[in-house]
Specification:
The complex is a heterodimer.
Chain A (H helix, E strand, L loop, with lengths): L8 H6 L2 H10 L3 H23 L2 H17 L10 H20 L4 H9 L10 H21 L3 H12 L4 H8 L3 H19 L4
Chain B lengths: L12 H12 L4 H13 L1 H17 L11 H30 L1 H19 L9 H41 L1
Helix pairs in contact in B: 1-3, 2-3
Classes of the chains: A mainly alpha, B mainly alpha.
């Protein structure tokens, strides 16, 4: 079936301006690194936040990601789109953290961030609205957190980072059809868990 | 091309991705029209699209928090640390071939250990000092003399019992 998606991956790879910036970083141009950081800081932190669901940890991991990018500058080769390489580092960093913390109190981090609104004694309508919104967000977070790591990464990249199947496949080192299957199953699970909120 | 139940995207997970692209607004106008024609006659896909759009509306309410104001400052500090560590790494890498040969490495270790021992106890040395030699030279004749006196005394003592034993006979 004809996909005809808007972005042509191959064409964008050939003229990837971020890869050009990274090649300048390789030559010692620190200003280019600042430009890359400025451009991708938010998306990397937000991706990591939705993966680990803790603000402080997501920022700590994002620092690790940018440090790795900087340390790898001397060996960098523009063989793939820069964002693919960047998100591959970010995904591995998140997977490693999730693996290390799997046996620990992962639920606690959810409660830490989502629970603050529940203790507000004020019963004004605005506060109640906020509490309802917090409960909704908390449910979404729990539903996403319950997905297997790879499905979660695929959903976050597809839904929130608006990445194409081919790029998600490159980040996760799997085929495009595997990504489509991952997404289909993940969205199916989320639809079932969150249908009462729609 | 697509309309008709036989070409239904819901027949496979791979083809259902087309519906996801439609929901996300990522399809070109022509492809989107094809999907809409199909949706008009396929209840299953219509249900899927409605469910997916509802899910994404729900998911839109999950916003990531803003980035901390001091994120860049922290990163900058760590980048500077990295730079200095890289400098040390370069120096160590440059010196590594010299220490790669076992005899050289062993000699270096021995040298460091010997230096360490000397620094810890600088008075300790393998050769005896001049003072201790002189003291030995002073003590030795006295010891010999004392030993000879002791021998003389023992000889006298050993001869004494025979005179004592003889005395009762004389009594």
């Amino acid at each position: 079936m004809d996909r005809r998606v808007k972005e042509d991956m191959g064409a964008s790879m050939a003229l990837d301006p971020d890869a050009e910036l990274m090649l300048r970083v390789k030559e010692g141009d620190e200003a280019s690194f600042a430009l890359l950081l400025d451009k991708h800081r938010s998306s990397v932190i937000h991706f990591l936040y939705r993966m680990v669901q803790n603000r402080a940890i997501s920022e700590e991991l994002a620092q690790e990601v940018f440090l790795r990018v900087y340390r790898s500058r001397e060996t960098y080769e523009a063989t793939a789109k820069f964002t693919t390489w960047l998100f591959r580092i970010a995904t591995h960093t998140a997977f490693n953290w999730l693996r290390d913390r799997k046996s620990e109190r992962s639920q606690e981090s959810l409660d830490e961030e989502g629970g603050h609104a529940r203790h507000v004694p004020d019963r004004s309508p605005l506060v109640e609205q906020r509490m309802v919104a917090d409960v909704r967000v908390d449910e979404i977070r729990r539903a996403v957190a319950a997905l297997p790591d790879k499905q979660r990464a695929a959903v976050v990249m597809h839904k929130y980072e608006e990445m194409e199947y081919a790029q998600i496949a490159a980040v996760l080192s799997c085929s495009e059809s595997a990504v489509k299957s991952l997404l289909f199953r993940a969205y199916e699970t989320l639809r079932a868990r969150l249908s009462h909120m729609a | 091309m697509m309309p008709g139940p036989t070409n239904c995207p819901m027949n496979s997970q791979q083809e259902a991705a087309l519906l996801l692209d439609y929901c996300a607004g990522r399809l070109e106008a022509g492809a989107a029209r094809d999907v809409e024609r199909h949706l008009a006659e396929c209840a299953r896909c219509t249900e899927f699209v409605a469910g997916q759009q509802a899910l994404w509306n729900v998911m839109n309410s999950w916003q990531a928090p803003p980035v901390s104001a001091d994120f860049d400052r922290h990163l900058d500090g760590r980048l500077r640390e990295t730079d200095s560590l890289l400098w040390i790494e370069r120096v160590t890498r440059a010196l590594r071939p010299a220490f790669a040969r076992p005899p050289l490495a062993l000699a270096a270790v021995c040298l460091v250990m010997a230096a360490g021992m000397l620094l810890r106890n600088p008075r300790a040395s393998v050769a005896p000092s001049v003072d201790s030699h002189a003291r030995m030279e002073q003590i030795e004749p006295e010891q010999v003399e004392k030993a000879l006196d002791d021998m003389q005394m023992l000889r006298e003592l050993s001869s004494a019992p025979s005179t004592d034993a003889a005395s009762p006979k004389t009594l």
